[in-house]
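Researcher: Good morning. I'm working through a list of sequences from a screen, and I'd like to move beyond sequence-only analysis. For each chain I'm collecting a predicted structure so we can compare shapes side by side. This is the next one on the list. No need for commentary yet; just the structure.
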Amino acid sequence: MKEPTLIAKPAPTVKERQLITGALQAFKVIPNLAVKEIVPASKHPDHGLDFTLHMQFGTKKFKVGAEVKSSGEPSVLRRSAAWLKGLLTKTKHDYGILVAPYISGEGTAICRDLGVGFVDLSGNCLLSLDGLYIERTGFPNKFRKPREIQSLFSPKSSRVIRCLLSDPKRAWTLKGLSTETGVSLGLIHRLAMALENNLFAEKKLGAFKLEDPARLLEAWREEYYRRAPRWVRYVLKAASIKESLTKLKTAALHHGIRYAFTGPSGASLVSSYLAPTVIHLYVDVLKNKFLEEIKADQISSEGNLLVRVVEQENEFIGSRQVKGIFVVSDLQLYLDLWAMGGRGQEAAEQLRRERLNF
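Model: Good morning. Structure tokens for this chain:
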């Protein structure tokens, strides 16, 4: 594929030029597709596009309008795609594409649904023209993962996410969220902006409410899976899981240890989907006398008792007594089951259907 000619028009910004030139590399690997010309922004009244691309596929020629965005966040894509689609009804372009540094699978769905294409600097692209459909997706972000998404699920921020997902239909004021979670108003404000930018939530009349709790939960579980907590493993001698749970509860209370069960053993107390073979236990402190009383021997792998000391109390938020035994919240159960992979993820989805309903 030959380098396209850049026609002299009002000059684009350096950043726009770099984005369009870099992103078009994705088209070079597509057989029989060529970008013949790149025409920068025109001052003609009915043009608000950054570039017009003259493309050819075989014998077919297309005039494609391109809008360059410095961010591929879902909220940006949704607004830009709608604007671009509307603009092209007033011009003689055959199609419109968005250009951004990186566009995720979620961004792909937004563009596809709104009838525009895209190309990014990581090699992902979508074109749907007369006789031509190209979708190259799944290429990872060549740059860094947006800190904004990562920051939503940091230990302190996740207290807010946990609060929102615990009552997903509730509308909150930022001050109300700060009071409820103990998180500073400044951080709450930044989180609210990040949630809104990524279409997880929306603000209306001074209230703040989740727009898509299911997608927020799924984003959290992927980040949680990536940073899954480490467990210390023990062998516990007991006749059954039920007997072990009672034994651990009694010993924890005896030694003044705050505890809550999670994983399959915790889930078995609220759902009959899993028959657990191991026990996952959160504690606020791990005392030698407690381990001596339950006669647990630490090992490097396997084991039927996995223990983790909670550092910031997040995992204890929402814990409750079930059949006289403390179990973590349904949200925490879901995250811990998902982090196990395999059957754990099947159990997580079953718990989600039975208990979370989003």
